[in-house]
Structure of ParA family protein:
Amino acid sequence: MQVWAISNQKGGVGKTTTAMSLGSMLAADGKRTLLVDMDPHASLSGYIGVEGGAHGSVYDLFGVSSLPLPVGTLVHATQWDRLSVLPASAAMITLDRHLGTKPGMGLVLSQALAELAPDFDHVLLDCPPTLGVLMVNALAASDRLLVPTQTEALALAGLERMLRSLSMIERSRGKPMPRTIVPTLYDARTHASRACLAQLREKYEGIVSEAVIPTDTQIREASAAGVPLASWPASRRGGQAYRQLLAELLAMSSSSVTDAAA
Ligand code: ADP
Ligand code: MG
């Protein structure tokens, strides 16, 4: 089982869209795929039509107000074959206040996912834009971090914050975390977009994906309709870019498995 966290300490950069798009493509390719909504805003859950409030959510793994619920009872099938979801709920926003510095709370998600390992090939974690107990859990549970980064100058600050948080978490996890910066909302017609992409490639050489996700109104329309990109017939440019990204990521994860075995 491969676990990828999709995170950036900035909203509106395409995290949820990336999780949905890659998840739906993996499932369409025959992989048993779980999307975990780690964001209390629950946009991924809303997008996919599973309300975490009523059905239980990531919140219930932590055992705040009652005993923790077994993760298997919180995972739901979606209307798409092989695509399941562990939804979010608004209560998750209180986790930092309730758990604060309680020991062992950073590994709750890792332990839950370990129980699901026989059932899934891929897990994608859609993270909140804040550094807290949810982000710490997501990074502790992941094999790779994807950082969708909007190709505009202001986005670089969010990226740097994210990479600083990651170094902190890496120190406690005691091993490096492979990372991939994914340029998003790219508009080749604007100088600002082109300049920002060039700057990303120069400053973060080697960790920026070749695939660049364009601004594509079809992506917006598919998400407004609650349809993952893999099933959205009109999607061409956006869909192709996410396909290319997925192929790159799968190639990287298979080479890191080979490295580990060597
Ligand atoms: P985040 O999860 O980082 O807050 P979202 O994935 O929810 O960001 O994207 C924010 C908004 O931008 C959504 O309305 C989404 O449909 C839209 N969006 C995301 N990626 C693209 C894209 N490549 N082209 C056009 N619209 C996009
Ligand atoms: Mg989101």
User: Anything to note?
Assistant: The pocket of adenosine-5'-diphosphate (ligand 1) is lined by residues 11-17, 43, 184-185, 213, 215-216, 219-220, 223, 238 (CB under 6 Å). The CA atoms of residues 25 and 230 lie 5 Å apart. The mean pLDDT is 91.
